[in-house]
Each structure stands twice: as structure tokens, then as C-alpha cells.
Write a structure and sequence with these properties.
Pfam families: LrgB. The chain is built from 9 helices and no strands. Helix 1 packs across helix 2, helix 4 crosses helix 9 and helix 7 packs antiparallel against helix 8.
């Protein structure tokens, strides 16, 4: 089948940029390019019998670029430090509420899908961004 991994990165980029064009044209929230890419690529992998590991090896460079991208966000954030200081209470409150919602949602979905309480509890701390999760993992 597709033993080589050369196709993985072009597939990811083609699907993502096509999804961006769809999102720009139709302005529908569910046409988020990341969501569309997942909805296209996951069934593709399942239908072709290609393992996620094979796919990941070919597009690993994108994953590697996520960590410096997070660091690059620090400078614009620093430039807005005066705004952050002025609104710190709102920011902390929103982050707390968002974290609780993410934990409850993840755990609830796991339980609804039949996961054991232990597995559902292990999902609680998983609500972090991909670059942070990759660095910790």
C-alpha cells in the first residue's frame, strides 16, 4: 500500500489549505480548517488501512514547528502587557472557567462513551495545548 511516508505532509497541507478556502468562502464555524482536516484525514487513514504512526512520521515536521510557534507568541503578548495588567481579573476568571469546562467536557464524553472511571479521571489533566502536551509528554 502506501508504505512510504512522503505523501503525509503534502496531504496534510493540501487538505488544510483547501479547508481554509472553504472557511473563507462560506464563513461557517464548523468549517474550521483544523476540524475539516481531521474529518478528511482520519477517515482517509481508516479507509486505506494506514496507521497513524506512519502518517505522523511523514508530517512530524509540522508537529515540531508547534513548539517554537508557542514561544513566538510571547513577544506579542509582552507588547500587550499593559492590557493584560488592566484586565487580569477577567483573564484569570475566563481561564479558570475554560479549564473547568474543558475538564468536565472531556471527562463526561469519556464516561458517555463507556470509559472506566479511572480512564475518565486520567483525561482531566489532558486539557492543554498540543505544543505544551508534546513538551511534557
Amino acid at each position: 500500500m502506501m508504505a512510504n511516508i512522503w505523501w503525509s505532509l503534502p496531504l496534510t497541507l493540501i487538505v488544510f489549505f483547501a479547508a481554509r478556502k472553504l472557511a473563507a468562502r462560506y464563513k461557517f464555524p464548523l468549517l474550521n480548517p483544523l476540524l475539516v482536516a481531521m474529518v478528511v484525514i482520519i477517515p482517509f487513514l481508516m479507509l486505506t488501512g494506514i496507521s497513524y504512526d506512519s502518517y505522523f512520521k511523514g508530517s512530524e515536521v509540522l508537529n515540531d514547528l508547534l513548539q517554537p510557534a508557542v514561544v513566538a507568541l510571547a513577544y506579542p503578548l509582552y507588547e500587550q502587557l499593559h492590557q493584560i495588567r488592566a484586565r487580569w481579573k477577567s483573564i484569570i476568571t475566563i481561564c479558570f472557567i475554560g479549564s473547568v469546562v474543558a475538564m468536565v467536557t472531556g471527562t463526561s464524553v469519556a464516561l458517555l462513551m463507556g470509559a472506566s472511571p479511572e480512564i475518565a479521571a486520567s483525561i482531566l489533566p489532558k486539557s492543554v495545548t498540543t505544543p505544551i502536551a508534546m513538551a511534557v509528554g
